[in-house]
Amino acid sequence: MDGRIGILGGTFDPIHLGHLIIAQEALATCRLDRVLFVPSADPPHKSVADVAPAEARAGMVALALEGQPRFELCRIELDRTGKSYTVETLRQLRGELGSGTELHLIIGADSAVEMSTWCDPQGVLDLARVTVMGRPGFLPDEVDDLIAARMSFLDSPLLEVSSTQIRFRVRTGLPIRYWVPDNVARFIENRGLYR
Questions:
Q1: How far from the centroid of its chain's Cα atoms is residue 67's Cα?
Q2: What CA–CA distance (Å, rounded) separates 90 from 104?
Q3: Phi, psi (deg, nearest 5) at residue 119
Q4: Are the beta carbons of 32 and 26 closer than 8 angstroms?
Q5: Rounded to two decimals, what is the model's pTM?
Q6: Computed from CA positions of residues 71, 72, 73, 79, in that sequence, does the dihedral angle turn out positive or negative?
Q7: 106 bridge partner residues
Q8: Cα 179 to Cα 109, 144, 163, distances in angstroms
Q9: Which residues on adjacent β-strands are paired with residue 108?
Q10: pLDDT averaged over consecutive 10-residue blocks of the chain (195 residues)?
Q11: Chain centre distance of CA 165
Q12: How many C-beta atoms surround the C-beta of residue 167 within 10 A?
């Protein structure tokens, strides 16, 4: 399959409007054909005990993407055992999509700063173009120089919204309307997540 495919990975615990805005910005700015949202099953930087079940997080992503034909849930890390390493996901996608497909890994600035600690960061840079979306307080010079030289840095709307804040709001009884899509808020309420 040829084309330009964006990959937006994350824990998505829960997915929120900031994720969707970043994906939309990358779609337009990088002229992508579609964006794959890749929830991690076993994130290497977090304990599985600290996150909602993988299938619940995938369900919230699927709900958030309803009506967006160029956004897709990709279950590649959910269907693979072991830690969810980005380099393995990119290798698998490269094998499935073919060499004619241009992969664009979409990451936040916080991830760009930490990328030198990832499993095989050089492999990630060899497999995909890495597009870094700005975040509040981020300075590009915080990224390792050798890694930064192979990244594209995009200005994007800076929303101070995070999954951590949303979980806190749910836990303390504060509303999350306008933080997440309405169908995701209903899912969280119906499943009793983050209480």
A1: 19
A2: 10
A3: -70, 115
A4: yes
A5: 0.93
A6: negative
A7: 8, 131
A8: 20, 32, 9
A9: 133
A10: 90 96 95 97 71 95 97 96 92 95 93 92 97 78 88 82 95 96 98 95
A11: 17
A12: 19
| pLDDT given at position 136 | 62
Full strand arrangement of the beta sheet holding 71-73: 71-73, 34-39, 3-10, 101-108, 129-133, 151-154
Q: Which H or E run includes 9?
A: strand 3-10
For residue 126, give both structure tokens.
Answer: 């060899």
* CA end-to-end distance (rounded Å), the chain: 43
The answer to whether the CB of 70 falls within 8 A of the CB of 34 is yes
Q: Is the dihedral of CA 133, 112, 178, 5 positive or negative?
A: positive
Q: What is the pLDDT of residue 1?
A: 57
In one letter, which amino acid is 35? V
Burial of 86 (0-12, 13-18, 19+ CB in 10 A): buried
Locus of tokens 């890390």? 77
Specify the length of the chain in residues: 195
132-162: b or e for each residue (b if 16 or more CB lie within 10 Å)? bbbbeebeeeebeeebbeebebeebeeeebe
